[in-house]
Automatic annotation (TrEMBL):
Protein name: tRNA threonylcarbamoyladenosine biosynthesis protein TsaE
Spans through the membrane: none
Compartments it resides in: Cytoplasm
InterPro entries: P-loop_NTPase, T6A_TsaE
PANTHER family: TRNA THREONYLCARBAMOYLADENOSINE BIOSYNTHESIS PROTEIN TSAE
Species per Swiss-Prot/TrEMBL record: Candidatus Colwellbacteria bacterium RIFCSPLOWO2_01_FULL_48_10
Record carries keyword Magnesium: yes
Gene Ontology terms: biological process: tRNA threonylcarbamoyladenosine modification
Keyword Cytoplasm: yes
Length: 155
């Protein structure tokens, strides 16, 4: 099942990010492993903007930028916001492959239920991600401030 939503401005994208973050916060950790959000979309689609608002909602105060040159940035979550989660990780998978994931012990991050992991360009490492990954695909709309978001779980 996919839920599609036309977002007409960055403000609407932020509202969706905030709402979804609240849902994940409400749900808390899964007993199966990390909570993974896979973000898919071309440059400028809104992956980083979405992540920024999502992480702010979880109480992350640090400046959130595309982690392009670091692969992954990790943030401890403040107790009052985390509801059982401990850390959020913001990954840029644009240039990483299976070997790089192994080197950074990505499997250990995935195994720990207390992690919430947001991954830009997640389709590039699809094989390494759990079935429970929540996929968010985003593309440009007809107007320059429009984005089309598609939310889904898939096998
Ligand atoms: N509806 C919208 N949702 C998200 N971003 C938008 C929207 N309309 C315009 N933008 C702009 O598009 C850009 C998205 O950039 P960014 O979040 O860095 O994308 P990505 O990480 O996917 O490359 C930002 O400059 C943002 O202001
Ligand atoms: Mg980005």
């Amino acid at each position: 099942m996919a839920i599609n939503k036309l977002l007409k401005s960055p403000r609407e994208t932020a509202a969706l990010a905030r709402t979804l973050a609240q849902v994940f916060m409400y749900l808390g950790p899964s007993h199966k492993g990390a909570t993974v959000v896979g973000l898919v979309g071309d440059l400028g689609a809104g992956k980083t903007s979405f992540t920024k608002t999502f992480l702010r909602t979880f109480g992350v105060k640090t400046h959130v930028v595309s982690p392009t040159f670091v692969i992954m940035r990790s943030f401890a979550l403040p107790a009052r916001k985390r509801n059982g989660f401990r850390a959020a990780h913001h990954v840029d998978a644009y240039r990483i492959d299976a070997r790089a994931l192994k080197q950074m012990n990505f499997g250990e991050y995935l195994a720990d239920s207390r992690n919430i992991i947001l991954i830009e360009w997640a389709d590039r490492i699809k094989k390494a991600l759990p079935k429970s990954t929540f996929w968010i695909e985003m593309g440009h709309g007809r107007h320059h401030k429009e984005r089309i978001f598609s939310l889904k779980f898939k096998d």
